[in-house]
Amino acid sequence: MNSKIKILVTGGAGYIGSHVVKALGERGYQVLTYDNLSYGCRDSVLYGDLVVADLADKEKLRRVFEEFKPDAVIHFAASIVVPESVREPIKYYRNNFCNTLNLIEACIEQGVKNFLFSSSAAVYGIPEKSPVDETASLAPINPYGRTKAMVEHLLADLSQAEDFRYVSLRYFNVAGADISGRLGQRRPDATHLITLAVKTALGKRPFLEIYGTDYPTRDGTCIRDYIHVDDLAEAHLLALEYLIQNGKSDIFNCGYGHGYSVREVVDATKRVSGVDFKVIETTRREGDPPELVADNRKIKNTLCWMPKYDDIQYIVKTALEWERKLPR
Prior knowledge:
This protein is α/β, with parallel strands linked by helices and 328 residues long. It has two domains: 2-175 and 226-254, Rossmann fold (3-Layer(aba) Sandwich), CATH 3.40.50.720; 193-225 and 257-325, UDP-galactose 4-epimerase, domain 1, CATH 3.90.25. The protein is globular. The strands form four sheets. The protein has a seven-stranded parallel β-sheet with strand order 3-2-1-4-5-6-11, with helices on both faces. Strands 12-9-14 form a three-stranded mixed β-sheet. It has helices at residues 15-26, 58-68, 82-87, 89-110, 143-161, 193-201, 229-244, 262-273, 297-303, 312-325, and strands at residues 6-10, 30-35, 49-52, 72-75, 114-120, 165-171, 173-175, 208-211, 223-224, 226-228, 250-254, 260-261, 279-282, 291-292. The termini are far apart. It contains ten helices and 14 strands. The longest helix is centred in the N-terminal third of the chain and has 22 residues, at 89-110.
C-alpha cells in the first residue's frame, strides 16, 4: 500500500529529516526530498529523489507539487540554533515562518491536506511544571521558539478554515545516530550537548563547557529529556499513518518522560568512550530552564508509540560511533 503514497519531505537532507527519509523508504513510501543543502548533505538522502531548492522559491515549489503530487508533506526545513536566532531574528522569521507559509500555501493550492510539522519544546519557554504536557501555555523565550509557536498557531487557524489536517511534533532533545551507522549529526556548528561531549572525548575539541552548576536540580546542572533520533523517526511514521487514516489535527510531545542532568550526560560519555576528557564549569546561559522533560502519555496513548532506545549510554554510544567516522 505504501508504495503508492507519496511524501514530500522538506529538509530531508538534514540530521532528523534524513533519518525520517530512511525510515519512509524502508517502509515503501515514495519520497521526494526538497532541501537547499544549506546544512543538509546530498549523500544523507538514502531513498527517493532530491530537489535542491529553497522554500523561498515559490515558483519552484509550485512546480514540484504539480509534478510530484504528494499525498502528505513532512516539514523539517528550518534554522535551529537558538543563540543565532537571538542575534539574527529576521533570518529566523523569514526562514522558519515566511518560508513555511510559502509551503503551506502550496499545499492548499495543490489540495494536499496532510501536513506533519517539526516543532520544538522551545515553544514552552520555561515551563511552570515538569514534565510538561501539551496543554501547557506557549511562552517561548527566544526567536527560534517564537517562530515555531507562530507556525503552530497558523496551522491551528488553517485547520479550522480549510479541509486541512496537521500533526505538530514537539521535539525535546534529539540525539544519537542511525543504529546501522549510515546517518548522524553532520553540522559542523552543532550545539547539542551529546554531540559536543563525544567530539571532546575524541579529541576534536579541547574541553567541554558546563553552563551553570547552581540550578535547583539534583546536581545543580540543567536536566533535559534526550530522545534517540531513530525513536523520533518512528514517531513521525506513526503520525503520518494517523493523518493518512484521517486522524484529527493534533500536537504531541516527543520525549521519553524523564531527564538526565548535564553532569550525568558527561559521566555517561566518559564511561562509554573510556576518556576522562576536560570539563570546564562556567556561568549560566540566559534563558536555560532548569528542567525540561516531556509528559509523553499522549503520543503513547494516541499513536501507540513505543520507544526502543531509551538508554542514555546507548544514545551516547551511537553518537560516538558516528562521530568517529567524521573528519576532525
